[in-house]
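Need tokens for this chain, all 178 residues.
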Amino acid sequence: MDDQLTGNRKLLRELREWLISITAAIIIALLFQYYVYAQAEVHNISMQKTLVEGQRLIENKWSYRFKSPERGDIVIIHGPESSLRLVKRVIGVPGDVIDVRDGMVVLNGQQLTENYAVGMTEPGGMKFPYTVARKELFVLGDNREHSVDSRSIGPIAFSSIEGKAVYRIWPLNKIGLL
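Here are the structure tokens for all 178 residues:
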């Protein structure tokens, strides 16, 4: 009888240890995904030719806690500027003067060379030249003629930047750094 009681206690202790370990692992994984790295999916054509619909990305949520976004970064935006989660490229940082002339972007008086961009850049609803304010970013989609970006929704607040897209994980033949 004692052997059976001892065996039951060992089994209960073992089950409790497994339950605690599994619960801790789930909590750590959820915290990691929420605060450090997450997966994002491209849902539209606004970043073509760089990113296409259906591709999956790894988003670094951690890096912007220590430094500000930089020109050229591909960022995930989730804020009041749009009801959708957006993937865009940072073109202007605080203090930059952005202009759009003859279908091209002019940054601080210099025409940008944008090998990643497709189509002509038109002003949209924004008045140019535009000076990027403190704690804001000017973002554009790479597919300039089919993008909802700062030209239509205005500048993006730093607080709306969810993270930086750093790695493409799907499809497998396109895996790699961005």
